[in-house]
Amino acid sequence: MNSRLLFVLCAFAALLAYPWVGGKFGVDLVNKIMIYAIFALSLELLVGGTGLVCFGQAAFFGIGAYATVLLSPTSEAGSLCLLLLASALTAGLYALVVGSLSLRTKGVYFIMVTLAFAQMAYYVVHDTPLGGGTDGIYLNVKPAMGQLIDLEDPLVMYQFTLAMLALTFGFLTVLLRSRFGHALAGIRVNEQRMRATGFATYPYKLAAFTLSGTLAGLAGFLFAVKDGFVNPEMMSWHLSGAVLIMIILGGLGHLRGALIGAFAFALLQELFRSEAVFGALAKHWHLGLGLTIIASVALLPRGLVGVPGQIRERLIGRSSRRAETPEVSHER
Length: 332
Prior knowledge:
By secondary structure, the protein is an all-alpha fold.
């Protein structure tokens, strides 16, 4: 069996078994991290898969969350499938609008345009009654699927999030290995050459951008249902920056890297926030987290997913140097 596939299967098996060994706090934390992992996978499709650095990904995450609350019935549990689709597609529709305009720019201009659209969405929910203003809004009733899936139960919510993570990972794996995925890889490597060979690159990029926003909206839906509350900070540029750090920390160009990066970032954040570990220094956890990320990027240019390869290269390099070193004879 392929070692990468084995790693992924073991990781998902461990996540499936975790609720039976982790406490209430641990299950809630891992559930939140899995939602961020879906969010990170959505951005990996753009940055690692297509070469488009988007700095407004939090807008789609937040729109998915706000759509969940605003479209949810106020008196009885709504249909889980319908609300999930509505929330994700609302985020995807906004991504389609943003992408159709921002993809006409390149480089740093593309980054700034996506950030500008994200900030506009942020101020709409921050400064108007639509999203409850700075206080945010609460989800009245969590969606359900009859007696089969009741997301009020933390264990069911955890398992549902894990299922969504597995489906997202599997879908993107198949997608990136398809003709469409190969076209995106060609655009990432050399868009000008792709256009010269007859590929209309704009529709491919727009499709990837829209799909990325839809998946971010799915993550936003899960986050809103899990906490039952959304606020404007879900759309802030800080969150867009955080999810970008996740995929860089894990390793760009690898779906596994997005998973590893999301878990590493969230666990490091919890570690540096812990007063039990760092005492009074926990108040300055941003400093410790920042220094750790800088060190990781400097020492691990391929991200955490590239660590086994770096170790293997160093071992092979040492073996080669030893083999090339001539033996010194002490015979006279």
